[in-house]
Amino acid sequence: MFGKEKKQLSDAGLAKVSGGENEPRRQKIGYTVKRGDTLTKIAAMYGVSIMDLVTWNNIRNPDLIREGETLVIYKS
After folding, report:
1. Which of 2, 4, 59, 73 could join 54 in a cystine, given CB atoms 3.0 to 4.6 angstroms apart?
2. Residue 9, domain member (yes or no)
3. pTM of the model
4. Number of domains the chain is built from
């Protein structure tokens, strides 16, 4: 029904995910926002786009992230 590419994600952030046959596998990790962090800075550290961070974390205001908040990042 869903195909063999669908994977279950663990809350521990250790599962591999796949967005489809043409997309590489990615590792789900958590990043805790530190004082002075911005989405631009975090995106650059992990080689992802700001839009990816916004989408993965349901961020309504990209200019407002809080210290101590944990962001989900899918790293290849």
Report:
1. 59
2. no
3. 0.66
4. 1
Establish if 1 belongs to a structural domain: no
Residues in Cβ contact with 45 at an 8 Å cutoff, skipping those fewer than 6 apart? none
Can you give 17-62 as a three-state secondary structure string?
A: ECCCCCCCCEEEEEEECCCCCCHHHHHHHHCCCHHHHHHHCCCCCC
Whether 37 maps to a domain, the answer reads: yes
Ordered per-residue pLDDT tens for the chain, 76 residues: 444 333 334 444 333 443 444 456 789 999 999 999 999 999 999 999 999 999 999 999 999 999 999 999 998 7
Measured CA to CA, the distance from residue 37 to residue 64 in angstroms comes to 10
